[in-house]
């Protein structure tokens, strides 16, 4: 009797401490596996500023601009510093004073800058936040010297990111149209970050994260143009 009771006790103890293994995970959708692979791939390429700076350097060479006055729209912190050497003088146009070399003004209307002042006028990650980009384009061309380079890098498709407001997305043709008065020397898309999983950054974001993650259609767009010399 005692042996039977002892055996039952041991069996109860074994059942109490035994945890069966979890069932095997269901196989993942091959398309999701491929999406994860694409997400990892973009991280192996050059970072965004490196790509933009390299392309901008190529456009300076193509335009034949070797020195002069540079104006970057919203260029706080001198992010293109490695592109422009001692032959260039760099200024930043911003809505507030952000440090040495800043011109306080609004690119949609900046009478404080005279016509044909700058040899290079550029904008990176700004045009999606400008409320009236058609006015900004006119002003950029107006303050550009004949023979000068205008360069724009912005977004074709990206997650909503108000900083403080997110207004627009563009095609290469749209940027070329906004820079009417210049001859296009290059335009196109940058697909490097296309399948990057960009997640919520806004306080209020209408796009919830789902089984695909965040936003996965991230395409940049660029345009470079040269203002023709006077006849």
How would you portray this structure in words?
With 231 residues, this protein is an alpha/beta fold. It has one domain: Rossmann fold, CATH 3.40.50.150. 27% of the residues lie in helices and 23% in strands. The chain is built from five helices and seven strands. A seven-stranded mixed beta sheet has the order 3-2-1-4-5-7-6, with helices on both faces. The mean pLDDT is 88.
The CATH C-level class name: Alpha Beta
Mean pLDDT: 88
CATH topology name: Rossmann fold
Which percent range fits the helix content? Answer: 25-40%
Layout of helices and strands:
Blueprint: H1 2-17, H2 30-42, H3 48-63, E1 68-73, E2 88-94, E3 102-104, E4 118-124, H4 133-142, E5 144-157, H5 172-178, E6 183-190, E7 219-226
Parallel strand pairs: 1-2, 1-4, 2-3, 4-5
Antiparallel strand pairs: 5-7, 6-7
Key phrases:
231 residues, Rossmann fold, 7 strands, 23% strand, alpha/beta, single chain, seven-stranded mixed β-sheet
Summary of the model, kept short:
Helices cover 27% and strands 23% of the residues.
